[in-house]
Amino acid sequence: MPQSQRDVRNRITAIKNVEKITRAMAMIAAARLRRAEQRILALRPYANAIRRMTRRAAQSAGPVPRVKILEERESVNKVGLLLVGGDRGLAGAFNSNIVRAGVAAGREHEDAGRQVLYFASGRRIASSLNFRGLDVAESFTGFTDRPAYPDARKIAQRLVAAYLDHEVDQVETIYNGFRSVISQVVRRETLLPLQRATVLESEARDDEETSGDAPQRRTVPEYEPSAEAVLRRLVPDYVEISIYRALLESAASEHGARMTAMRHASDNAGELIRDLTLEMNRARQAEITQEIMEVVAGVEALG
């Protein structure tokens, strides 16, 4: 059924209002993205240094020190998965990619005979897991667009407590790593135990790449009072800074995804407005043509 000019005009007005909203949201996301990028660039050197110090202290300590958080379980029967996402939607596939990766990781562990315990950072992640019938041990919300270090410390304390209380035997994090405005990659990292931490392995690879093929002499640090004591102090910071970095990477990725999604929505709204305007003009022309034909027919009838 063809639409009247009034209906088409009302649709154009409604779509223009939506376009204004999406453009404003894209501008807000762009401004927040710039700030998030600055925070990531400022944190990365410190985070890399903490991880590097932790790895080297663990190597110098030799056998596993008698520190509870460093105890490696003989077998991994329970795994804790921390899924880092956002509190809000309208960001394309940003949240769904994390949920999809988290569910796939959970099935992988379950197929290996392990129990999975889910932790969620972000209201959308928690609701999606609940919708899929997966129980969330604890969710952390209200800060995903601008996370602070105390937020990371709160999550770290919960995960460390779960590990120390034998609630889980291994902790993994899944989050969107920020590459660029249009490129975010899902990362899966093992956080605990320290002996299996993939984040430390990535730092070791980075050191090898920067050192090149030529052998270099590296100063062996001496620890006072001992490498074990230093490691005991570094490990909590390592967990906190790793989670904080994941939160910042995820926040920047969310802003980038939302900015891209809102720009695409604005472009689609513009195309729809043009199509509807063309349709309205054609309807107006057809109406004018019809009126002219009626006038001509009336004149011919009178003549």
Structure characterization notes:
- The chain has about 300 residues and is α/β, with parallel strands linked by helices.
- It has 2 domains: about 5-25 and about 260-300, ATP synthase, gamma subunit, helix hairpin domain (Helix Hairpins, Orthogonal Bundle); about 25-210 and about 220-260, 3-Layer(aba) Sandwich (Pyruvate Kinase, Chain: A, domain 1), CATH 3.40.1380.10.
- It contains 6 helices and 5 strands.
- It has helices spanning about 5-60, 95-110, 125-130, 150-165, 200-210, 225-300, and strands at about 80-85, 115-120, 135-140, 170-180, 185-190.
- The protein has a 5-stranded mixed beta sheet with strand order 3-2-1-4-5, with helices on both faces.
- Strand 4 (about 170-180) and strand 5 form a beta hairpin.
- Helix 1 (about 5-60) packs antiparallel against helix 6.
- The longest helix has about 80 residues, at about 225-300.
- It is elongated.
- Residues about 205-215 have low confidence and may be disordered.
Please provide a brief summary of the model.
With 303 residues, the chain is an alpha/beta fold. Helices cover 63% and strands 13% of the residues. A 5-stranded mixed β-sheet has the order 3-2-1-4-5, sandwiched between helices.
Notable characteristics:
303 residues, alpha/beta, Helix Hairpins, Pyruvate Kinase, Chain: A, domain 1, five-stranded mixed sheet, 5 strands, 63% helix, elongated
